[in-house]
Amino acid sequence: MDFFVVTGPGWPDPLAALGGVVAAVLLGLLIGIPALRIRGVQLAVVTLASIVAIEDLLMRNRPVMGTAAHTMNPTPKPEWFGQYVGALDENSNQTDYWKFTLFAIIVTALAGLFVVNLRRGVTGRRFLAIRSNERAAAAAGVNVARTKMLGFGVSSFLAGLAGVLIAYKMPMVTSEFFSPFVGLAMIAFVYLGGITTVWGAVLGGMLVGGGLLSEFGSLHFEGITQAYINAVGGIGLIVNAILTSGEGISLLVTNQAKALVASMRGTDTQENHADKIVSTEKESV
């Protein structure tokens, strides 16, 4: 398997990315089958245990994967329809983020639109019904098992897209980049941003290691390491759980924006009311 892990199947980059996403969806559905009858913390534990088992039995199994899965394997320079979309300059090994950044923004925007439309549709309402009360949703005619499997498939699809973008960003990849503890850190920052909203997920992605804010801090402020970022994320997660019940920073920002808009409308209303009073008095005089 060493040769296959390093070189891949030799597919065009869009097809290889699609293959990675499909593989993530199939694996997510496979994990979802035994998790249909559980929920909450138990579901999180089963999911994490499945990831650890896959890593130990497959990724660290040298007779199956060889040594390449845990070595630094160079990432082929990705091209989509003749356009280079990697994070390195296509003619050198120097960092050149603007093409990758544009590509990542487009993919993220499309994924966000997909999730927004999904939430507003019938499937999204079924997701929310099961999250609120699984038994009541089943009594209302919602197929709980099918909806849960669809949820596993959608989340795995988004995770597969993220994996493709991470691979495009890195000059070299190894399975250590995707360990269970890295996944837990990402989940923590997404909770901090606000796991129930699309904007919260985007904000969490900016906060996580390798994201926009962490990269900006490491470039412009000396001494800011990933350990400090994780510590801030852990403290923020605790505060988030206490203050916002999991809604995250996005809820605080949304509430402040609504309050600001309401205050501005109130001021405008008061000014208009005062103008009407003045004009009425002038007419009476």
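[next item in queue]
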Amino acid sequence: MYSPFTPQPFGIYQPAYCPATASPAYASDSLNTLLKHIANQSATFQSQVSAPREGFKPRVTLKHLADGDYQITIAKHAAGGEDVFADYQIKFYNRSSTVSDLEIVSESDKLVKVFQFDAGDYDLSQTSYTTVDDSYLAIRVPYISRRKQELQKQKLQKQLLKQQQEEAARLAALQKAQAEREFVRQQTVKALERQMQQEFARKVQEAEEARKAQQELQQAAIRAYQQIQAEAYGKRAEQAQQFLFHSFVGPYSFAHPLAVSASVPQTQCQSSPFSDTVPRVSEPPSPRPVTNSPIPQVVKKPESQVLSKKPTIVSVSAPAELPTKTLVKAPSLEEVEDEEFKGFQLK
């Protein structure tokens, strides 16, 4: 007994030929007959050519419509200007389609069939069209089960997740390396800043020490200069005092008996203010002792010199060493008015 699903060569399934029912009516009825079959997890759309022409290659288009509708268009092929579209006998094998789902639209240049099936069961991107022995046009759409599709989806998701993880790991490694480089750079900058600060502090300290040393040297020089100036001023003051003493008072002072004589340097006295011709004294006279000091001899001058109002002071030799700060008692008026001074008058 023949079955309408008897396997045929080349993996193409078609109804068994029944001679008793072989008639044009059968061929016409087969246009409205949909045979479902699933083999090797694929859906096969077959176009049977009852009277194929040489070199015939029909053009088939599979188009996805809205709401799960798919449209197959088999274009008319004209050979030698003849219409051969009526020679086609098309059979569809689909997993979910039924007779009621088919709609045949006959136009002048093409035959359109619209059918419905679950899009999740088929991969329309892998649709192929083949001819078998120039008699059949097989439109094959690979079948994909929902489980297999889900597994493929999970596999794709895992691959995508793995890629994302690898990208995240690569980005994390890049960020870590960048952070390490930034840390090293910051540490280097901090070390350089500390070194520069230490160097600057050292230079400031050295400059401060040099400034203090210079200031101490300046102060020492100022103190030495002030000391030298003070010593020189003291010597000049002492010399001026001795000069004034010997110039205005002299060894025959008529000052108060309590006059005090300071140390006299070995210098020459200036001329007396009482005369322009008074000879200079080479050495100051030695101070006379307080008790019984002899009166120095004075040469009596002629009368002409006495009347000229220019008295002459005789130089008196002094001892080699002079005592310092010795009290000297000036001669009294009675002692001066001695017989030797009777002819001597100061005017």
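[queue empty]
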